[in-house]
Design brief:
Calx-beta domain-containing protein; CalX-like_sf; ADGRV1
């Protein structure tokens, strides 16, 4: 697993960054970090860069589990460099 690819639309002029976080899409109270890491960070695009990979490490365990759903959220108010987060931001 290589990570989640985030695509920058609307041009690639200038460097931009945005913070992100991952939460569970369920009532499960187990910390997200029990299943994957990191659970938050900053995604950076260099001038001219259209795609960036958000690397995630999935925790391998021997517990039988059903499929689990997570929400990746780009945080609009954290954008640096004059870009905008468009819908959907999750």
């Amino acid at each position: 697993y290589e990570g989640i690819i985030i695509v920058r639309n609307g041009g690639t002029h200038g460097a931009v960054s945005v913070r992100w976080n991952i939460t569970r899409n369920s009532t499960d109270r187990t910390p997200v970090s029990a299943d994957l890491n990191p659970v938050s960070g900053t995604l950076r695009f260099a001038e001219g860069q259209m795609n960036a990979v958000l690397p995630l490490n999935i925790t391998q365990d021997n517990l039988p589990e059903e499929a689990e759903a997570f929400i990746l959220r780009l945080i609009p108010e954290s954008v640096q460099g004059g870009a905008e987060v468009d819908e959907p931001m999750e």
